[in-house]
Amino acid sequence: MNHLSLSASKHLLKPQPSKTQSSVVLLLLNHQFSTDSDPNPNPKPSKQPHEDDSLVTLVVQLLESDEKDWNLDQLRHLLFSDSDAAPSPRSLFRITRRLNTSSKALKFFDYVSENVATSPDSAAATASLSSSFQAVLELTKREPNSRTRLFDMYKMAKERNIPVNMGAAVLLVRSLGFAGMVDEAVNVFNGLDPALKNTHLRNVVIDVLLKWGRVDDALKVLDKMFDPNAEFRVDSVTGDIVLSSLLKREQRGRRVSDEDIVGLVQKFGEHGVFPDSLKLTKLITSLCRNRNTNRAWDVLQYVINSGGAVETACCNALLTGLGRVNDFKRMNVLMVKMKEMDILPDVVTIGIVINFLCKSRRVDEALELFERMSGGGEKTDGISAEPDEIMYNTLIDGLCKVGRQEEGLRLMEKMRLQDGCAPNTVTYNSLIDGFNKVGDIERGRELYDQMKEEGIPPSVVTLNTLVDGLCKHGRLNSALEFLNEMQRDGIKGNATTYTMLITSFCNVNNIGMAMELFEQMLSSGCSTDAKVYYCLISGLSQARRMDDANIVVSKLKEAGFSLDVIAFNVLINGFCKTKKLEKVHEMIQEMETAGVKPDSITYNTLISYLCSAGELTTAHRVLSKMINEGLVPTVFTFGSLIHAYCLKGDTYKAMKIFRDMGSKWSAPPNTVVYNILIDSLCKNNEVDVALSLMDSMKNKGVRPNTLTFNAMFKGLKENNLLEKAFKLMDQMIEQACNPDYITMEILTEWLSAVGETEKLRRFVQGYEVAASTA
Predict the structure, then answer these.
(1) What does pTM read for this prediction?
(2) How far is residue 623's CA from residue 183's CA, in Å, rounded to a whole number?
């Protein structure tokens, strides 16, 4: 049966009343007689509330029967017999809504539509129909699968020119929007009389649009509400809806930037609407997290200066952001502003300030604030709170980081006396780390034993702190023993633990133990990261155990990690040193496949290897590719080429590259490059050129070392250039460049042979004088 048809229900209505209907008629007749007996000929006043309630009850009782048993005559007597006192819109709304089903309510609405059409008061008739239609929608909304039926009813109302009132409009927009029928909800809104599009309804539309990611459409509706000439403007509910949605970390549709949200806050502020504490805190936190602390500062200042409410939480969020960038000046300004506005700092506020003072190593200022807060010194107004464990731990950690471990211990004892506070794992971890950093490993171990005696459970951080201290002081076996002890107590090592141990054993060339630890880590099911693999690959490559390095690379890939450019460079260097050129090519190809771009170290490693292998043509090709990739050659790059040419005795090409370094590439030569050239030039009997390079070193501020002078002394000896050797000997003393056994061997043999032992004696004596003066 088509519920939208009026005529379809007429033949179902019987003229004879049932027993229930008879009682209703009797009530109706009694009511009617009393009305007729009223001698007052004047128009009757509108029904009183109790009369309205009676009418609703009578009609609902009449309509309780099945739809086909309705008696239209009785219904007409109740509702429309008195043309001067037609049922109010409120009565019709209540009657319709109390009918059990939407189908029955719709039939009643059809009946009302037919009877009010002849009403002389068209405004009252329209209001009655709108109210009854709203009730039909409410009943429909409660029933299953109502989405499309709601919109069909709206279209029916449009076809019949039945105006949708405010209640029905809100219901339609919200229900359709909730069901995801956003376009339909927008159509309802757009089709309404402008007078109905008040702030409340616009808020509902904006809420629906934002919920489904239609951000730009929502902002268009909002812009009209921001118009100073608009009839319906934004209110606090608008602000809550908009800012709540846009400040969500995960939202549908276009992401609105922090800057745009700040602009919206300012626009709302122009209408006297400000974000509440929660939303303002979220916005400030987001701005600070995105390193836009200046904008966060501006937002809070704007809200304060515009008269918006600001609470401690908002200030705490900004203090945190300012602390991260070490902006203590503005932190102080904000604290003063809080005092002026009677915004009381809480324990979180003080904790934030103390935390960042400690991180910036301004521990004395942090301690002063702590004393003022806890009543240990002269209090400042507005700063009064009970310190908690976090604050104590922050201060203890700060003291330990600046080497004041004993003060940290005393503060821990004070912590024990504070109600509700007691040292915990974090407290002991900070103290153990502090003593480790100053090399007092035994004191750290004593603290570990103390925390166990007190029943404070150690954590993996405790383990890593002690292992790190032991490893850094070369006590690797003790570190291993401690790891085993902790594991027996149920504390397993993590990736950080094994990375420290593996790196330390690789550094002392104990690759066997490093590999054993690596296998132990894998077999224990420890969650690993790429760093531990990189450390082992580096250690194996340095030890030239490239087969084992390959095995670790395979395990790295099995674990779901991939090589980065640093790891590739380590492997390429290892394969170059072991002269496995085919593996070098394999690594280069794998880099290209993986999309890892070679860097300067990659190219320098290849160029160095090719130069040492005498493949200078290929080395120059690699250099050209390096330049084409936009990488600038370094002194190491040119040094490899210069060394290769010097080994070949081609000092001409070596000097050409040397000159290009400073003029063409802005890579000034260092002492090593000068030494290579000076040594080669002296060996080729080009002593004058070598001496000119010594002058160049002086002019360019490059300090010669013992190797430089040794190379020159050899060249000068071969050419018996004594006077120039004497000048260099004086220069060596002036520059406090200590001779080694090679220097003394060259000069002793040469000067003794030519009878200049006195010069040699003064040369040695010059160093003795210089040493005593120093």
Answers:
(1) 0.63
(2) 62
